[in-house]
Amino acid sequence: MTGTVRPVALITGASSGFGAEFARRFAARGHDLVLVARRRDRLEQLAAELPSTTCTVLPADLSDPGAPAALLGELARRGIRVDVLVNSAGFGSYGRFEAEDPDRIADEVQVNVGAVTALSRLLMPDLLSSRRGVLLNITSTAAYQPSPSLAVYAATKAYVRALTEALWQENRGTPLRVLALAPGPTETEFFEAAGSDRFKVGQMLSVPQVVDVAFRALDRRDPPPSVIAGRRNRWTAVAAGLLPRRWVLRVADRLTGE
Ligand SMILES: NC(=O)c1ccc[n+]([C@@H]2O[C@H](COP(=O)([O-])OP(=O)(O)OC[C@H]3O[C@@H](n4cnc5c(N)ncnc54)[C@H](OP(=O)(O)O)[C@@H]3O)[C@@H](O)[C@H]2O)c1
């Protein structure tokens, strides 16, 4: 007798923050995992925390444009079909545009936009052939208005939101659930990596609070295209869509500007 095949969740950015938490939650929901990020030791540590879950650790640097296709090759070689893709890997750079390192900007666009697009596209046949398919892309409240001093980052997140919402519509009528999750400032390693100490612990949401928002949306009979974590963040996003652009930018500058 063959056992039930466990669904597989591939999670990028699983070495930290949201990605690590999504890995734990999908494991608790009976998924096996493919864990992707650069820091192999962190991924192996997470796998060791989850002894009853089959975890495949695939370290990859997603700023390399060849990384998504190489990951797909590795999955095919190991005979792994993916039911759930969580694109959580991403980073920001804080500072004025002209002061930013051009190579870091290129990496940021590649990780936040290029890799998300390529992995979503390359894994779409797997996701669509699954009865339990999920495509979950992490965008940001920065997708709802430009962010001075996080200009490139906010632009990449606006792209991810637009891409994901369009894929939600394209896949209406299929079992695939597509969701763009927009966290506001949350307690992860994000701000340290971005070079900003703008937000303090205690002023931010916690990772479990934000991940709960994603699962509440995904568990709905008809999940929405996108969800913003936190009531204040939702109101800010609504206001940003209604107010004159110059006001929105002035307020955004107060929130994120140098
Ligand atoms: N925290 C927030 O306030 C916030 C708000 C809105 C949206 N977000 C988004 O949430 C997502 C997760 O970030 P987080 O908050 O969880 O921050 P985090 O704790 O810094 O995690 C970022 C993850 O991305 C991975 N990553 C970065 N560069 C990579 C690369 N070149 N190749 C492969 N993986 C790479 C990191 O792994 P390695 O370093 O091991 O490679 C790490 O696992 C990001 O897309 C971020 O933009 C965060």
List the main descriptive attributes of the protein structure presented here:
binds NADP nicotinamide-adenine-dinucleotide phosphate; 7 strands; Rossmann fold; alpha/beta; globular; single chain; 258 residues; seven-stranded parallel beta sheet
SSE map:
Layout: E1 8-12, H1 17-28, E2 32-36, H2 40-49, E3 55-57, H3 67-78, E4 84-87, H4 102-129, E5 134-138, H5 151-170, E6 177-182, H6 190-194, H7 207-218, E7 226-228, H8 231-242, H9 245-256
Parallel strand pairs: 1-2, 1-4, 2-3, 4-5, 5-6, 6-7
Helix pairs in contact: 1-7, 3-4, 4-5
Describe the model.
This protein is α/β, with parallel strands linked by helices. The chain has one domain (8-256): NAD(P)-binding Rossmann-like Domain (Rossmann fold, 3-Layer(aba) Sandwich). The chain has nine helices and seven strands, in the order βαβαβαβαβαβααβαα. It has a seven-stranded parallel sheet, sandwiched between helices. α3 runs parallel beside α4. The protein is globular, with a radius of gyration of 18 Å. The termini are far apart. The mean pLDDT is 95.
